Amino acid sequence: KRVAILISGGGSNMVTLARSMTADHPARPCLVLANDPAAGGLARAEAMGIPTAVVDHRPFGKDRAAFESELTRVLKGYAPDIICLAGFMRVLTEGFVTRWQGRMLNIHPSLLPKYRGLHTHQRAIEAGDAEAGCTVHEVTAELDGGPILGQARVPVEVGDTPERLAARVLEQEHRLYPMVLRRFAAGDRDRVDL
Ligand code: GRF
User: What broad class of enzyme is this (predicted)?
Assistant: First the structure.
């Protein structure tokens, strides 16, 4: 299976996903694509010998469809079987998502269905939650709403700042996403709960 990984920033999830696709793994990274030419993950992917591409969303302004048709054009050149969104910060329209339905995963830094959208750690702290975590789900047209494939939980500590909680959750993202992708690429949809 060929996996394209879409990033917007540092790409720490991309690195751990790429590293997890060892010789015995049913999948291989075929592309790392960023929507920002300054994404730090691009250099990390190049250092790992993974092909990279950039489709900068800014020239397209509010025209999501035009951005996504360029995204699709570039992706087609690498023929991915699976797309992994990893710290990818653009909302994808129903048109794009439908084309990839059942073959596109995302990692979200909350225990969905709680805290869809942004500022998830701040919201968990403000709500006084005892637990937080991350979720890997199939991407559907409903933002952060697709079938859940795995979750990892962490305690919220007294005095936690969003940054400290984010770091604790990110560690679990790096464990969860590779475990889910390995199963997903082998056709296994059983949930992973860490
Ligand atoms: C992090 O906030 C992570 O929780 C979310 O995307 C952001 C960047 O992740 N998944 P990465 O280091 O670019 O993978």
Answer: transferase
Closest CA to 42 of 82, 17, 6: 6
Q: What is the pLDDT of residue 128?
A: 98
Q: Which two tokens stand for residue 1?
A: 């299976």
Catalytic residue list:
108
Q: What is the ipTM of this complex?
A: 0.93
Distances (CA, A) of 123 to 119, 131, 143: 6, 12, 17
Point out the ligand 1 atom lying closest to the alpha carbon of residue 170: 4
Count other C-beta atoms under 10 Å from residue 85's C-beta: 22
Residue 133 Cβ contacting ligand 1 at under 6 Å: no
Structure confidence at residue 132 as a pLDDT band (50, 70, 90): very high
Say if residue 146 is exposed, middle or buried (CB neighbours under 10 Å; 0-12, 13-18, 19+).
buried
Q: Is the CB of 87 under 6 A from ligand 1?
A: yes
pTM to 2 decimal places: 0.97
